[in-house]
Amino acid sequence: MITLALVIALLAVTVVCVAIGERVHLPYPILMLIASSAMASIPGLPHLVIDSHLILPLLLPPLLFATAQQTSWTVFRYRWRTLLFLAVGMTAVTAALVAGAVWMMVPGIALPLAIMVGAMVAPPDPIAVEAVAGPAKMPRRLVSMLQTEGLFNDAVAIVLFTAALHALSRGERIGWGLIPEFLIGAAIAVLVGLLLGFLYRLGTRVVTTTAARTAMSVVVPFAAYMLAEEVHASGVIAVVVTALETKRRARVEDSEARISRATFWDVANLLVTGIAFGLMGMQLRDVVVAEGWAVLDYLPLAATVCVLVIAVRAIGMVLIRPVAHIDSGDLLGWKDSLVLTWCGMRGLATLALALAIPVVDETGAAIENRNLMIIVAASVLVVTLVPTGLGLGTLLRALRLQDDGTVTALEIAELTARARGAALRAIEERFGGTGELTEKQMTALRDRFRSLRKELDTTTMAQEVIAADGSGVAGTSGGASAATDRHQRELARAKFMRRGREVMVAAQTVGLDAARAEVLDARSEKGVDPHAADAVLRQLDLQMLAAPPATGHAGGHGVGRH
């Protein structure tokens, strides 16, 4: 019960830190680090302890899965050179240089321990970037590049960390054989991700309940990670591939499930990140208490590591400029390189690996210098997050790179125009020449799809259109009484309006289906920002849910919402 109470307390503190962070323009993870350290200082409060072997499987899969769904296979194909250089090359070089510095500066430290420190602090984090990119108005092209890099560098860091941990525990040596081992593991992880993506799509066709589909999206990243790790492959790559594959195979008719999943993952990301930083804050407090003033002896090493990770990042961004393309096809400019250097924030991967350091190795012997490793990791987190979070907006303004929303608005407008064209073509093909829609109704539909981002009010619009056509309803025979004649006219008018509403709803359903299919196809095209496509798709999904269900109508052509 105490453990449950601590978890709930961390969740509550996360919400408070998010609110405070929005007001003071500071990344909420850092506030969580401070707040949880303060919580751990409360006398008599037990500490939340999680088995180090569970840290990575618990924290990484959900956050990587949610982040990977914001990009696409096309983005990776277009940026494969940048991806290899940043996610693989720079991560490995950073880890090696930091390991060398730690090995030289800490007398008697085992080389595997030094490599573990290097692996912990090497990978920048896409989730940390998102925490500050929005308020600072960073251009989407740079955010997307940082996200792409951040999805795979964790895999390299974890492989290095795990290999070093095994070498420390089992007396194994780390050699060049790690490279083919990583490549084989990556290939197997891709197969695992494709398999889980296929099973996920199969499950969504069998399971029709929205809640159950959302639950499947929670299960699949954990399943991908654990299955990949079980066959000695990269769980990170498996999760990323699974996310990309499920997004690539998205179906038009899954509007409600898409909205439900997006809402759930927004909340889950916030809470999981908060718990992760909260756990780190508690660990940091324990280390400070255990070491006392001896912590100051670790600061020169921590400062050296911080300088190294920033310097390697800066040099790497200069070297990659001749081959790194942004979405427009242009090479990176020096301003872009400076911002990408500034945003080399360490976050969840560093945090998770630091928390995953076991207290004892497989032989039962205590791991020496564990506190040193945690202090270094926490120092890198603070140095790369706090100045960036506070100064990114200022830097972007000074470089005149702040995004005023124009680019995204133009992309959304272009995608909306494509969706509108697809919708009108589908309506013309289905209803043109059939006589089921009057000219006034067709005009109303055209006007409706000129403003796809407004809330849909099908019933009201249909009633207005039918009311305009209602004058054409034929009267009854002159021999009937006035009351009977009026009653028959009202019945005929009601039937005519009901019939018109059904046709209009069916026509709009056909149009919205075609519009969503067009946006889903566009999402995989080169040069299309998945973020903009998702924004348009979400609006279309909301409009589809706002519309009343289509029913069958004359001619035997019922159009439903699947």
From TrEMBL:
It is found in: Cell membrane. It holds the Pfam family Na_H_Exchanger. Its main location: membrane. Keywords: Cell membrane, Ion transport, Membrane, Sodium, Sodium transport, Transmembrane, Transmembrane helix, Transport. The keyword Cell membrane applies. The chain crosses the membrane at residues 29-50, 83-106, 151-169, 181-202, 222-244, 264-283, 298-319, 339-360, 372-396. Residues 13-397 form the Cation/H+ exchanger transmembrane domain. It is a multi-pass membrane protein. InterPro entries: Cation/H_exchanger_CPA1, Cation/H_exchanger_TM. Coiled coil: none annotated. This is Sodium:proton antiporter.
